[in-house]
Amino acid sequence: MRIMNDLYDVCIAIPALNEEKSILNVINSLISGVSKVNISQIIVADGGSCDLTKDIVFNLSLSDCRVKLIENPLRIQSHGLNEILRYCTADIILRADAHCIYDKGYVDRCVLALIDSGARNVGGCQRFIANSNFTAGIAIASVSFLGN
């Protein structure tokens, strides 16, 4: 594994679709508290958003050269991740959801767990926050025996 400036080189991969309400907070939460890794890329694969998601990411890319907006014409998350791989140059890829809020230092902790364990894949636990009856149902199903 290549080490840059004694830091591990990380690409944050975010497939997104109509996430104008959350995309900026997602990116900010991922980069906050990072001290042990180098986030060299933040690539958002947009699946054809009809809201302001693309505008928000594009405007962020103007002030942060690590941010890149790419298209995901098939709109499927897995395809968006494959599209991100075309542009990714980092040693470690951290896949992130576009509608989550990540704890400060999440990226550092994931990368350190990856390195320390020798695993090929790591991740954090999820705490679901419902803001409607529908999302409450998803939260309940996700933490059930069938959801896990």
List the helices and strands and how they pair.
Layout: E1 3-4, E2 7-16, H1 23-31, E3 37-46, H2 53-63, E4 67-71, H3 77-87, E5 92-95, H4 106-117, H5 133-142
Note down, in words, how this protein is organized:
With 148 residues, this protein is an alpha/beta fold. The chain has five helices and five strands, in the order E-E-H-E-H-E-H-E-H-H. The chain has helices at 23-31, 53-63, 77-87, 106-117, 133-142; strands at residues 3-4, 7-16, 37-46, 67-71, 92-95. Strands 1, 2, 3, 4 and 5 form a five-stranded mixed sheet that branches. Strand 3, helix 2 and strand 4 (67-71) form a beta-alpha-beta unit. It starts with a strand and ends in a 6-residue tail after the last helix.
What are the main properties of this structure?
alpha/beta, globular
How would you summarize what this structure contains?
This protein has 148 residues and is an alpha/beta fold. It is built from five helices and five strands, in the order ββαβαβαβαα.
- Helix coverage percent of residues? 25-40%
Tally the beta strands.
5
Number of helices: 5
Largest β-sheet summary: 5 strands, mixed
Structural class, from secondary structure content?
alpha/beta
Average pLDDT number: 90
